[in-house]
Amino acid sequence: MTTFATAETKDADVNGTKFVYRTLGPKDGVPVLFLHHLTGVMDDWDPRLIDGIAASHPVILFDNRGLGGTDGIAPATVDEMAVDAVAFVNALGIEKVDLFGFSLGGFVAQAFVQREPWLVRKIILAGTGPAGGEGISGVGALIQNAFQKAGATGKHPKHFLFFTETAEGQAAGDEFLSRLEERTENRDAPARDETIGAQIAAIDNWGGSEATDLSTVEHPVFVANGDKDIMVPTVNSFELAKRLPNARLSIFPSTGHGGIFQHHKLFVQQALEFLR
C-alpha cells in the first residue's frame, strides 16, 4: 500500500503552470485535499496524520504555486491561492473534495469554499482563523523570534512556532520533526526567500482585512487547535466555531499551533469520524 513515504510525485498542467502533487489512499470516495501552512511543501505534512486519514479516504497533497516542485511565482494573497487550488482540482477532473486547511491553508480553505461551494463536501480547519482575526497579522515578528531562539538553542524554529516551550511540548516537537524525515527519496525543495515574503504578506493581508460572512458556509466543518497557539491565537478557533453554522470544535490542552501533530492519534480519530 502506498504511504506518505513512498507516494509517487506526479505533475499536472494547471492553466499552463506545472503543479506537483501526490495521491494515496483508496481510489474510491471523495478525496481530502490538503492545504498547507506558511512555506509548507508536501514533505512538511506529518506522516502519521496523512497515513492515518489515507487509511480510509483518498488523499491529495500538492505544492502551492512557487513552492517545492511547483512552478510559478508564489501569490501574495489568500484569494489568489484559493484560485490556484480550485484550478488544480479542476485540472485533475475532480467533482468534489473535502478540504483540510492547516494554518495559512485554513485561510485558503475558507476562500475556496466561499468561491466554489459546490466543489466542497466537508472542511477541516486546524490552527487557523477567520479574515480579520485577532493576532493573525505580524507573523513575521514571531518567525524572526523563533529563528533567534533556534539559533541560540540549536533547535528548529518549529519547536517554538508549533509547540509550547514546556518539556512535553519540546519533546513532541522532537518527535514531529523526526517524523518529517521518514520520506527519504524524491523529497521537495525548500521554500525560497521570495516565496516566504509573499506568503507572509498574504497572512498579514488576511489578518488585516474585514471579516467575511461565514454564515453562508453551510458545509459541515471540524475546527481544531491547541489551546496555546501563538501563530494563529486559539481565540480564532472559537470564533470560527461560533460563526460557522455547522461546525464542531476540538481544543487540545497544553498544546500550541501544532496541537494536531502532538496529539495526532486522537486528532486522526476525530477527523475520520467527522469525514464519514
TrEMBL record:
The keyword RNA-binding appears for this protein: no
Provenance organism: Rhizobium leguminosarum bv. trifolii
Protein name: Alpha/beta hydrolase
InterPro entries given in the database record: AB_hydrolase, AB_hydrolase_1, AB_hydrolase_fold
Superkingdom assignment: Bacteria
One Pfam family in the UniProt entry: Abhydrolase_1
Stretches assigned to the AB hydrolase-1 domain: 31-263
Keyword Cytoplasm: no
GO molecular function annotations of the record: hydrolase activity
